[in-house]
Design brief:
Blueprint: H1 4-37, E1 40-45, E2 51-52, E3 56-64, E4 68-71, E5 74-76, E6 83-89, E7 95-102, E8 108-117
Parallel strand pairs: 2-8
Antiparallel strand pairs: 1-3, 3-6, 4-5, 4-7, 7-8
């Protein structure tokens, strides 16, 4: 016959290892999130369909989890917080802006917007 103390010890071992496995899986998912999520682009100004005041205008925004960012095919510098600013030229009747961001795993995201010069 098994003693009650031995049975309790076995149950505690099972609970401990179950919790350890659950914590490991959650932590692994947390650390793998950047790999799974890929790059992210948020364009602050201008918004899609905005009318810009002149033929030159500034595009700005924030990127995260990126290696580089391209606007109209040119690599744009970003600061350590992921902010970017660039001066572009708009031509009538409208200009299409294409923003590409690539992360360290070569996943790419593209944002497209149109602006109308005044």
């Amino acid at each position: 016959m098994v003693s009650p103390l031995f049975d309790l010890r076995k149950q505690l071992e099972i609970y401990f290892f179950s919790i350890l496995i659950i914590v490991s899986v959650v932590y692994g998912g947390w650390e793998a999130y950047p790999l799974l999520a890929g790059p992210h682009i948020t364009i602050s100004t201008p918004h899609d369909g905005d009318i810009v005041a002149s033929t030159t205008f500034q595009i700005s925004g924030v990127v995260s989890r990126v290696k580089n960012i391209e606007i109209q095919g040119r690599v744009i510098p970003i600061d350590k917080d992921g902010n970017f600013n660039e001066i572009l030229i708009a031509q009538p009747p409208y200009t299409t802006i294409i923003v590409n961001a690539t992360d360290f795993y070569d996943k790419t995201i593209t944002k497209t917007l149109k602006v109308i010069p005044k």
